[in-house]
């Protein structure tokens, strides 16, 4: 069945009534989008865990969802909270990085090496929320510019301009952080 706002509304209502099949359809529809967003924000080794925590939160709180905003907006607020929780926990649990393991993970990464992936994540986290959001919508979720514009409630031209400005800002942060690593080493 084609995913429409009406179909989604029916599934949400059924899931709120405890229909696990309906929740499963919602899960299947949003899993890749949530996974990509989380992947862009947390280390690769923790993406699956954080994604799982997102959907556990959705399952626990779907009964409280009200249609005052779109479901995807509500869902991405949960993603944002779980990612923030992840970093709060991580700050409390200072860990030693196993460099040998990190090198093995880099082989599976779409980035040339783990350093590139970490640099990109650091740059994304350093951006203002509005820049980070438009980059994630366009690149992590793969939305066309028109959907990005609709999601942000702006015009198509404004979405394109904001995206390019956000990418430039991200590139600037990458250059800045890369220079810090080069000169501080």
Please give the structural blueprint:
Blueprint lengths: L4 H12 L3 H22 L5 H15 L9 H22 L6 H10 L5 H13 L2 H12 L4 H8 L3 H29 L1
Helix pairs in contact: 1-2, 2-3, 3-4, 6-9, 7-9, 8-9
Features:
globular; single chain; 2 domains; 185 residues; mainly alpha; Arc Repressor Mutant, subunit A; 77% helix; Rna Polymerase Sigma Factor, Chain: A
Describe the structure.
This protein folds into 2 domains: 1-95, Rna Polymerase Sigma Factor, Chain: A; 113-185, Orthogonal Bundle (Arc Repressor Mutant, subunit A), CATH 1.10.10. It has 185 residues and is mainly alpha-helical. Helix 2 (20-41) packs antiparallel against helix 3 and helix 8 crosses helix 9 (156-184). The chain is built from 9 helices and no strands. Residues 94-111 have low confidence and may be disordered.
